Amino acid sequence: MPSIAFDDLLQARQRIAGLVRQTPLEHSPSLSRLLGVPVWLKLESQQATGSFKLRGASNAVARLDAGRKRCGVVTASTGNHGRALAFAAAQQGVKAIVCLSELVPQNKVRAIRELGAEVVISGRSQDDAQLEALRIAHEQGAAFIPPFDHPHVIAGQGSLGLEILEQCPDVCEVLVPLSGGGLFAGVALAIKAASPAIRAHGISMRLGAAMHASLEAGALVEVEELPTLADSLGGGIGLDNRYTYAITRDLCDQVHLLDEASIARGIRHAYREERLVVEGAAAVGIAALLDGLIQPRGPVVVVISGRNIDIDQHLRVINGAEA
């Protein structure tokens, strides 16, 4: 397994303490009744940028030396990482360029621009956007900060896992949205260091789940990126993946895939029962519980990863649509 030590997570948490929020862990009476064990929701949707991505982005920018900061930062994103990097860069006085594919919802594009970052639209997939970001980084000497496969990003996301352990010391199951694996890797490194018996579940959509396809193949593979309610989970994991694939392979107890109807049910449940507005990627843990995919042995923590859903889409789903 690539070496990202538990101490790296501790240092990242200390480094970003003044830059991100410690988010609440809220009890869910409805899900607890359904499963017969306590269910808790880790509300990363309450971060300043509306998603967990601010943790990794803040740590990665903070780790740059003065020379790299002067040249700025660049990334590719499905939206939330770009928003987080724009925010983190602005906080630390650094110029940011964010490359997005044409599939990224317009609400996320606008939000990134409003934070002062330069936005570049390139191609029809996350891989296309990443190629453009790498080109810009080489041309301008900017620091490329990827959305997930980077040790400083993973360590920053791991601070979330440390908070879960403190807020729910007897946790038995942790449900984490799974895409490129930065969030899953960071959280899994934290909880498995505390106790290998804590089960780490990766939750994704059926449409274009690149990490799951790679785990099934036993090697890094490409998948077609398809429109999905869980748009933040879209994109490949990279054929040159150095960190998240191996960590996910070694620490993930089970991957669960959801269809679009289940994701829609998760969004509706979050709104009607938990009074939460969440994006599709953040609803997958709730959806997995509603579908009966998890048989918990004890307390469950569900990571609610973000709230950045297009409000018109949210209204359609709440009123019964599945897209």
TrEMBL record:
The keyword Glycosyltransferase does not apply. InterPro entries: Ectoine_EutB, Ser/Thr_Dehydratase, Ser/Thr_deHydtase_PyrdxlP-BS, TrpB-like_PALP, TrpB-like_PALP_sf. Keywords: Lyase, Pyridoxal phosphate. Its cofactor is pyridoxal 5'-phosphate. Gene3D superfamilies: 3.40.50.1100. Residues 18-306 form the Tryptophan synthase beta chain-like PALP domain. PANTHER family: L-THREONINE DEHYDRATASE CATABOLIC TDCB, THREONINE DEHYDRATASE, MITOCHONDRIAL-RELATED. This is Hydroxyectoine utilization dehydratase EutB. It comes from Ectopseudomonas khazarica.
